[in-house]
Amino acid sequence: MRLTVLGGGGFRLPLVYGALLRDHAAGRVTDVVLYDVDSARLTAIARVLADQAADVPDAPRVTVTTDLDEAIRGADFVFSAIRVGGLEGRAADERVALAEGVLGQETVGAGGIAYGLRTVPVAVDIARRVARLAPDAWVINFTNPAGLVTEAMARHLGDRVIGICDSPVGLGRRVARLLGADPGTAFIDYVGLNHLGWLRGLRVGGRDQLPRLLADPGLLGSMEEGRLFGTDWLRSLGSIPNEYLHYYYFNRETVRAYREAEATRGAFLRDQQARFYDEMERPDTPALATWDRTRAEREATYMAHNREAAGAGERDAEDLESGGYEQVALALMRAIAHDSRTTLILNVPNRTTLSVLDADAVIEVPCLVDANGAHPLSVAPLPYHATGLVCAVKAVEREVLAAAESGSRTTAVKAFALHPLVDSVTVARRLVDGYAAAHPGLGYLR
Fold it and tell me: What is the pTM (predicted TM-score) of this model?
């Protein structure tokens, strides 16, 4: 089985390859093709993978290419993990937004909209190429903003594109561990959009264990979300929100922390990864050890500004492990390739799952996966406060898609202005101007 990774020079790829090395099942991936626009990054990551595979005699063969069509042709699965504009683009997204006093986070608020506007045209081009060159391939989308990009690609690939994210996996794992349950067998009742969802239950043997956690302030306060949101707020919600909802529930505090920080998250990662790739240009650099050290630092500083704003302290050692998206990707591939049914939280078209959204709206929910793809499971309606946020953000995503398709600056302004975290049409207009100046790739907006 052949796996193509678009954005194969990306820093997180060794997590995926490590999962493949641990997979010895029949019909596993035997060939991995890495594609990236940057040949130096490809070479660096290929060295890390070679170190990982040094003691694995049947490791999947790795090849690299800077030819997109060559990478796609013949693929059984395509992982899309691109970053249009690189980390310099992410840093610019944060900088432009913060200058206007609004959030510039990669997937949330103004930053997420800017990232989507420059990513959607590229993702759509990839989807069209896959449909033409590898029509039987399944696309697994890692590219952020994951829900928005998956919906854009689905317009050309239908159900053969599925989005994944590690946030719900990590949240479900933390809750299960606290309650003494096996994360692999517990059913996680999680509903929303990508980076905008709520864990509403954790069923073990058909019985919901979440009320037991919410009723115990000490236990609840010992987990990452308890420290981040505060136990009183979680108990009033009656659910555990995805960590990214901290940007909504504590927006003023987070924006202030970002503005006062020595460096934004994007700037930190830009500089950190630049150092990593510079080190990797030296032939004597121990590739895997250098990558692992850099990854540990990256994980330890994840959402540091939010934790600082909340007084949440350092991350737990258990949370410094990989979030698990590579295991989700592998489980997804296995289920499709071998028709081995499993349940995973994925980004897929709504169909009739949430009545407040149309059938094509991509949502993040538990899905039954088999040889025919991912099928969203029935879920209870969201409460009004969650419905309002989901509908508002989905409306913004639709305006982003419309602006990317039409090239309309007016529609792009509408996307910014409608977002709950951008409170002014005037600011929205300045944001579009600021992002157009910062990103040549947004020159299509007229």
Answer: 0.94
